[in-house]
Amino acid sequence: MQISENFFLDKNHQEYRPVVIRNLGLTDYIETWHAMQAFTHNRIKVTPDEIWITEHLPVYTLGLNRKGISLPRRLDIPLIETDRGGKITYHGPGQMMIYLLLNINRMGMTVKQLVFYMETTLISLLKIYGITAETIKDAPGVYVSGRKIASLGLRVKNDCCYHGISLNVDMDLSPFLAIDPCGYKGLEMTQMRDLGINTSVSDLSWHLSELFARR
Question: In what side-by-side order are the strands of the sheet with 59-62?
Fold first, then answer.
């Protein structure tokens, strides 16, 4: 695991405060999820924020918005019912997970502003690689020509959040065909590799850390 420290400007734009960046490598979803819960439960007012960057072993995750969701049409990949917002998605190697363990009250943000911050930061990251991405009204995430390249889901407790964003980098997209991604039937997924960008999660992590810390 690689650990570095960066800085966010506080809500008054007067003081920089530290944020710890952890590059975890390939991890198990359940172990990482429980670690996020523990971190959020145990943090105190002065606990520095953290950003965890990881990849997961293959797993479907089902968020709290479960009404009308069809279960995966394949049984070789485990399904985990988790506590983030949103519906169903897939995680696997080659997909960059960006977990934001932030005190959003200290940042002076509402949840809506945080979602905007997450989406625009990813759009800026993709722009560095020559990819023009956008958001779609009432459909959280980041899209390229109508195909989804990044999904997001959060959990907020006591003015602090965890979970975050998944960015498709260089992965097997076929497991998405067995679900309605994010609850949208027929939604097409894409990734950086299919857009002509040959990179990896480890290569992206430095750019991403810098962007999040400076926004």
Answer: 79-81, 59-62, 88-91
